[in-house]
Amino acid sequence: METLDRIQSELAEIEALTAQLAARRLTLLASADALQAAFLDGARTMGEWVARTLDCEVDTARRLVRTARAIPGPVLDRLAAGEITVYRAGAYTEAALVGLDPDRLDGLELAGVRHLCRRRRRPGPVDRYLVVQPQLDEAAYRVHGRLDAVQGAVVTAARQAEMDRLSDGVPAPDRPARSELRVDALTSICEGGERRVVVTVHHNAEGTVEVDGVAASPGVLDHAGCVGTVERVGDVPRGAGRPTTTRRQRRRILHRDQHRCTVDGCSSRARLEVHHIVHRARGGDDGDDNLTTLCWFHHHVVVHRRGFRVDPSSPPGRRRLRPP
Asked: CA 89 to CA 79: how far, in whole Å?
C-alpha cells in the first residue's frame, strides 16, 4: 500500500528527472535555433519547426522557443542538476527578462515571483484583435480576441448592463446560465434595437431550405423572419418575403400589451419584440390577434432557440409556452 511519504518522495524524483530532460531539450532547441533549423527545414518560423518536430501545439512551441532563447545560464545549470523544477525555471527566466536577479528569488513561491514580474514589466501597447471564426458548416461560431484596458472596461460594463436588463423580470427558473446570458447580451447589443439584417432564404429542388447558404430547420426559418427582412429565392413558405410587422402595427401591439412581456410570470420590459403566435409559414396571419409581445429573452432564446411555442389558447396577458 502506498504511503504519503513514498508518494511525495517518488514525485520529487520524477520532477528532478523531468527538470534534467527539460534542460536538455532547451539546450537542443537553442542549438537548433542557432543553426537556423526553421530555414533549413522549410518552416516559416522556429515555433512552427518546434511544433512539427515535437508534435505539440504552436503556442506551446512558441513558449519553448522564447524560454530557450532567454533562459540565463545559471538557471539552466540548476535545472539540469534537478535543483529547481521546470515551472520555477520558467518563472526565473521571466524574472531575468524584466531585470530581476533569479538568485534572490529562491525564498518566494511561484505566485510571488510572477507578481514581481508583473510589477516590473513595462506596460506597452496592447495587441488588439477580434476573431469571429465560423465552423466549416457555419452551424456555430467561435469568438475570441483581446482589448486594451479602456475598451475592456467599456465592453464589460455594457455587457453587464445588458445582462441585467435582459434578466430583469424573467422568472429565475427560466433564466439561462451566466455563460449563456453573456452571449445573449452580446447578441442583443449587436442587434442594435431597430436595425434589421437581410436574410436570404433559398428553397432548392430537393425540398430543403437554406438560410444564407446553410441548411436550416423550420425553427431557424421562423427566427430569420423575426430578426430581419427575408429575401425570397425560390419557392419559400408563404409570407417569408415580407417584414414581420409594420412599425405602426408594432407600436399598436406594444401599447395593447402595456409594454411588457406577455409570458405568464414574466414582467420584463427589455427589448420588447412582436411575435407571431402561429407563424406565417404554418398558416398564421398578420392580424393583431395572432401577435403578442415577448421580451428579448423569451423571443430569441426560449422560442426560437429552445423550440418552445406560444399556446394560442392561453390568455392574452398570461401566455403559456409549450415545450417542443
From this structure: 7
For residue 139, give every residue at least 6 positions away whose Cβ sits within 8 Å of its Cβ, in sequence order, or none.
Answer: 214
d(CA 159, CA 176): 15
Strand partners, 232: 201
Cell 404554418, residue? Answer: 282
Q: What's at 291, amino acid-wise?
A: L
- Whether the predicted pLDDT of 274 surpasses 80: yes
Q: Rg for the chain (alpha carbons), in Å?
A: 29
**What gap in Å lies between CA 245 and CA 201, rounded to an integer?**
18
278-324 per-position pLDDT tens digit:
877 677 787 888 899 998 888 888 888 788 889 988 888 888 888 88
Report how far residue 13's alpha carbon sits from residue 141's, in angstroms, rounded to the nearest whole number: 45
User: Could you give the 3-state DSSP secondary structure of residue 47?
Assistant: helix
Q: What is the pTM of this model?
A: 0.42
More confident residue, 155 or 220: 155
pLDDT in tens, 55-93: 999 899 999 999 999 999 999 999 999 999 999 999 999
Distance CA 198, CA 221 (A): 13
CA–CA gap between residue 212 and residue 138 (Å, rounded): 10
Tell which residue, 169, 155, 191, has the closest CA to residue 273.
191
Is 227's pLDDT higher than 70?
no
Alpha helix (H) ranges present in the chain? 4-34, 37-40, 46-54, 58-70, 73-80, 86-97, 110-120, 149-167, 178-191, 218-227, 247-256, 296
